[in-house]
Each structure stands twice: as structure tokens, then as C-alpha cells.
């Protein structure tokens, strides 16, 4: 029983046809990590391709290194994948804006009365439920008449990742590649205004991108620039002979 619990989630990526290192009971793939964490991502990218699956103990982690897919995940469809930042429902907005007393009505911002809230809620009940029910009935009938289409739909539903899975954009693996213009070479003008337009922004993500990027990006860059200027005004760097 303990063994079954320890590897219960370890078959998810195999069922979905996603390659990745073999997990161990309870430990997943944690035991194979290098001392330098991103080296493991680079090794997996070279062995399994742009997408692979690993396990942090029992938790499945999908790693993505394709720049176009990274763009779709963190920018274009961010709130499709990350659904914990939704606004409150419409009814809650109506309740929050309700005018509870005559004193509040004297304010410049007009709220909704009890009658307005009840009227709108009733409208949603009658206008929404009947049309949705009829659509579902028609859809169910159409699927029943076309079982091959229903089977394809069921396969697509079953191919989704389970709840609480982790999605990881393997940024170290996105960067060091032949398509990224020799990332290990020190090119001082790599990110100049003239050359920046030719670089795919999703191959180098030190602060992330999209709605969930680092909010301290500008502050960090200014701090780094000020610090290095202050040091270089008085000192110079050199490499120790043994390195």
C-alpha cells in the first residue's frame, strides 16, 4: 500500500506520451539533480527535446523550453493556465455596490438597490439557464449520433494535466542553444537597441515575461547598474591565475 501511494502519480506523463527521466517511489526524479540545478534541465533538454516531464517527489512537473510555447503560456494565455487571479463574480460585484441606506445614496457614486439586484439575478436565472440547458441537450444528442466525434472529445478531455500539476519554463535550456547566437560568448552589444530587435525575447527570461513577470525588474536593473558603476570608478576586476 505504501509503495502504491509513493508512485501513484508517477504514470501521468507516460500516459500522455511525454518523455522524461524515470521517477523513483516517493522521491520522483529529485535524486538525479546535479549540484548546479539548471545543468539537469540542459541535460534533459538534450535527451528528451523541448518538452519533458519530471517529478518533485510525488508532484508532476512539466518543463517547457520552446520559446513559442513559453510565450503562449506566460503571456497570450496566462490566465487560461493560471486561474487563481480571477475577479469576483457578477453577483458579488452587485452586492458590493449595493446602497444599504439613505445616507449612502447621498454619495456621488451611485450603487444598486435591493430591487435592482433581485431584478438582475432573476434575469440571469431565466435568460441563462434555459438557453444553456437547450444547448447542452442539443450537444448531447449530436454526440450520441456521432460516437467517433464523442470519442475524440473524451480523449482530448483525458489528455489534460491533473489539478495541482506544476508547469516549469526551463529558461536555462531555452537560452544556451545554437539558435540563441552563441550565449556563452561575451558580446557587449548583444542587448543594444540596434541588436535587441533580432533576439527572441522568450529565449532569455531573467525576470520572466507577461502578467506574472518580476515586478522588481526595473529596480533591480537600476540597482545593478549603479553598483557596478560605483565599483568600476575605483577598482578593476581580474581573474585569479588558477581559474
Protein architecture, described:
With 243 residues, the chain is mainly alpha-helical. The chain has a domain at 2-78 and 161-206. It has helices spanning 2-6, 12-15, 37-48, 67-76, 78-81, 90-96, 102-105, 114-145, 147-158, 171-174, 193-196, 217-232, and strands at 51-56, 59-64, 166-169. Strand 1 (51-56) and strand 2 form a beta hairpin. The mean pLDDT is 75.
Secondary-structure map:
Layout (H helix, E strand, L loop, with lengths): L1 H5 L5 H4 L21 H12 L2 E6 L2 E6 L2 H10 L1 H4 L8 H7 L5 H4 L8 H32 L1 H12 L7 E4 L1 H4 L18 H4 L20 H16 L11
Parallel strand pairs: 2-3
Antiparallel strand pairs: 1-2
GO molecular function: heme binding; iron ion binding; oxidoreductase activity, acting on paired donors, with incorporation or reduction of molecular oxygen; steroid hydroxylase activity
Organism: Champsocephalus gunnari
Protein name: Cytochrome P450
Strand order of the largest sheet: 1-2-3
Strand content: 5-15%
SSE order, one letter for each helix or strand: HHHEEHHHHHHEHHH
Cα Rg: 27 Å
Query: How many helices in DSSP terms?
Result: 12
- Going by helix content, strand content and strand pairing, the class is mainly alpha
N-to-C span = 52 Å
Oligomer: single chain
The level of helicity is 40-55%
Residue stretches low in confidence (pLDDT < 50, at least 5 long) are: none
Count the beta strands: 3
Quick one: biggest sheet? 3 strands, mixed
Tell me, briefly, the overall form.
extended
Mean pLDDT: 75
Amino acid at each position: 500500500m505504501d509503495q502504491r501511494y509513493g508512485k501513484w502519480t508517477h504514470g501521468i506523463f507516460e500516459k500522455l506520451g511525454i518523455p522524461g527521466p524515470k521517477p523513483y517511489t516517493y522521491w520522483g526524479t529529485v535524486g538525479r539533480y546535479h549540484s548546479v540545478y539548471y545543468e539537469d534541465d540542459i541535460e534533459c533538454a538534450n535527451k528528451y527535446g523541448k518538452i519533458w516531464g519530471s517529478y518533485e517527489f510525488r508532484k508532476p512537473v512539466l518543463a517547457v523550453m520552446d520559446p513559442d510555447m513559453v510565450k503562449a503560456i506566460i503571456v497570450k494565455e496566462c490566465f487560461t493556465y493560471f486561474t487563481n487571479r480571477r475577479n469576483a463574480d457578477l453577483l458579488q460585484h452587485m452586492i458590493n455596490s449595493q446602497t444599504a441606506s439613505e445616507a449612502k445614496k447621498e454619495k456621488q457614486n451611485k450603487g444598486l438597490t435591493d430591487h435592482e439586484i433581485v431584478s438582475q439575478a432573476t434575469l440571469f436565472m431565466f435568460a441563462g439557464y434555459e438557453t444553456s440547458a437547450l444547448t447542452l441537450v442539443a450537444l448531447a444528442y449530436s454526440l450520441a449520433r456521432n460516437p467517433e466525434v464523442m470519442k475524440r472529445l473524451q480523449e482530448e478531455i483525458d489528455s489534460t494535466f491533473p489539478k495541482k500539476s506544476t508547469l516549469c519554463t526551463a529558461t536555462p535550456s531555452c537560452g544556451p542553444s545554437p539558435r540563441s547566437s552563441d550565449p556563452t560568448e561575451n558580446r557587449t552589444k548583444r542587448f543594444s537597441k540596434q541588436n535587441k530587435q533580432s533576439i527572441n525575447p522568450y529565449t532569455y527570461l531573467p525576470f520572466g515575461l507577461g502578467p506574472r513577470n518580476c515586478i522588481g525588474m526595473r529596480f533591480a536593473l537600476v540597482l545593478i547598474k549603479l553598483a557596478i558603476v560605483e565599483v568600476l570608478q575605483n577598482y578593476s576586476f581580474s581573474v585569479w591565475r588558477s581559474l
